[in-house]
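The material for today's practical consists of a large collection of protein records. An example says more than a description, so a record of this kind follows:
***
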Amino acid sequence: MKIAILSRNRKLYSTRRLIEACEQRGHEPMVIDALRTYMDVVSSKPEAHFKGEVLPYFDAIIPRIGASITFYGTAVLRQFEVMGSFPLNESVAISRSRDKLRSLQLLSRKGVGLPNTGFANSPDDIQDLLKMVGGAPLVVKLLEGTQGIGVVLAETKKAAESVIEAFMGLKANILVQEYIKEASGADIRCLVIGKKVVAAMKRQAQPGEFRSNLHRGGSAEIIKISPAERATAVKAAKVMGLNVAGVDLLRSARGPLVMEVNSSPGLRGIEEATGKDIASMIIEFIEKTAKPHKTRTKGKG
């Protein structure tokens, strides 16, 4: 199979591992920078071009689209979908998961466990917003933040008011969420492929830090998850419409709660923590699933 990997840097661990897995299984991988790809949008024969060349037909596309280029990256992926290539994750599903508020609303509609979350526009509503999520301590999150950036723990009511007012003063869109104290600065990353959790790791924040992201110095170890956690992760990925997803869970007194669903989960942390060959599992899924013009969302938002 001809498989395109949409990635800005072929030296990144996840991209490198996917190239290796493709080659080991007898496929032809090609790394394409989405920002250098441009499109001929016509009804007769739509094309994608890269560095002055017309790109060939690919049997499958693996999108590794960073959050900062979501709009253009999903437009490029959508062009490949129009051309009939099988997307590992569809453009609509990626856009859906990248919008933190929208993704939580969709998960809520399907009854998936979530931290109590508030969203408001006016400083006049801050007091009621704080009550809505159970008061301080609470977490304030920038809607556009990634890898723990733009996430603040407000330990007192006064601190929460100040942080929220500051973000609102900058016209930033924020979510306010309850702080799950019993999680003790840890979360669980479940790697979902298809309808199965193929690997799971516990990420623990370093002392004095509540964000467990590995980019922020958190540590990772293999963990055994419960049937409820497994079911929650699979359901969250399905609600988003993602074939491959990193679902981040918190262990709470009322069961597993979904913190975020990641459409381009990094492979290094989970492969090193679990010893599993996730890259090959992804390619194997493509082998079993890829068919021309096979998209489920059919343009639905």
